[in-house]
Specification:
alpha/beta; Quinone Oxidoreductase, Chain A, domain 1; Rossmann fold; 2 domains; seven-stranded mixed sheet; about 25% helix
Length: about 350
């Protein structure tokens, strides 16, 4: 099958023919229909998130089941599915306590000594988060998949696999936003636009979008933003002016040291900063502990929108199909697999909201 393989960090992905194994017990072979391109994939390419090459990236997929392995009862050939990187074991304290997205074994692959799911001429190829959707097919654990209704377009369903679930869930699941609260979203890419929609669904009052790319503001307003501010040194003062001293909730959806610091500064007394973007592991974020303590600010992380994906994603599909969730407008372009490197160049420039690889 064709796949885009990362052979080295900070180098273009290489389009190659590789081998994919047959499903082992508990595994499912999926024909990939579409895969979103996520900023976390770029973090892996640039070394901010550790992943040894060679590997196949991609973790925002939707597709159709081809073959199921022994013991798989929840899926059958022809099922439409979304893949999610937060696989779950079902027995740990996080799974049984209602937070399966924190399952400590979610990234574990096949048992030690088992053949690699992906390979080329006998060389094992690493799989990203048990998915690797920059390829024509995926072989993954059944607990990395959720079945969805057949009338959901798969190119839009793919967005739910990571970006939309991350942003939407941050507003709907991670924190409890009361109606009328003031909300700031920093970063209007796919994740930030989804966070804006989640805040709108919560019935927020002032909903402020911040980005350096002003062309994104039309989308932000369409999705629910009441105010849009261009990222600059004056943005902090403007937010404080609009919210009478700081917002009730600030969602940082980029993952940069300066924007994390800015998010905390924009948070008002007793407010909550929600860190959604992933800061590269090589970087540290200095913050003022005095500011956090004396104003009793709360700083919390939101991992993958605190999702329970087999519950949340079918619900988000319903939101889209009944008009409450906007996905069509988020897709800046649909591209073939061979244009993936050009897509990352556009991402680096901030020229797109979300790009989707589509397969024939």
């Amino acid at each position: 099958m064709k796949a885009a393989v990362m052979r080295a960090n900070n180098a273009p992905l290489e389009l190659e023919d590789i081998e994919i194994d047959d499903p082992a017990p508990g595994e499912v072979l999926v024909k990939v229909s579409a895969s979103g391109i996520c900023h976390s994939d770029l973090h892996v390419i640039e070394g901010g998130l550790p992943m040894p090459p060679p590997c196949v990236l991609g973790h925002e997929p939707a597709g159709i089941v081809e073959v199921v392995g022994e013991g798989v009862t929840g899926f059958a050939s022809g099922d439409h599915v979304i893949g999610c990187m937060t696989a779950w074991c079902g027995v740990c304290k996080f799974c049984t306590g209602g937070r399966p997205y924190l399952c400590p074994v979610q990234f574990e692959g096949r048992p030690f000594g088992a053949p690699s799911r992906l390979s080329k001429d006998g060389e094992p190829i690493q799989q990203l988060t048990n998915l690797s959707s920059f390829a024509e097919k995926m072989l993954c654990p059944e607990r990395s998949l959720v079945k969805i209704r057949d009338d959901m377009p798969l190119d839009r369903a793919a967005l739910l696999g990571c970006g939309v679930t991350t942003g939407l869930g941050a507003a709907l699941n991670t924190v409890n936003i009361p109606a009328g609260a003031s909300v700031v979203v920093i970063g209007c890419g796919g994740v930030g636009l989804a966070a804006i929609q989640g805040a709108r669904l919560r019935g927020t009052g002032k909903l402020i979008a911040i980005d350096s790319q002003v062309w994104k503001f039309d989308l932000a307003r369409e999705f629910g933003a009441t105010h849009c501010i261009e990222a600059s040194d004056e943005a902090l003062g403007t937010v404080h002016e609009l919210t009478e001293g700081g917002a009730d909730f600030v969602f940082e959806c980029i993952g940069l040291v300066p924007t994390v610091q800015q998010a905390i500064a924009m948070t008002g007394r007793g407010g909550t900063t929600v860190l959604v973007g992933v800061v590269p592991m090589t970087e540290m974020v200095p913050i003022s502990a005095t500011d956090v303590t004396l104003q009793e600010k709360h700083v919390t992380g939101s991992y993958m929108g605190s999702n329970r994906f087999r519950f949340d994603m079918p619900r988000y599909v319903d939101f889209y199909l009944d008009g409450r969730l906007h996905l069509d407008q988020m897709i800046s372009s649909r591209i073939p697999l061979g244009e993936v490197n050009a897509a990352f160049d556009k991402m680096r420039k901030g020229a797109v909201a979300r790009q989707v690889i589509v397969f024939d």
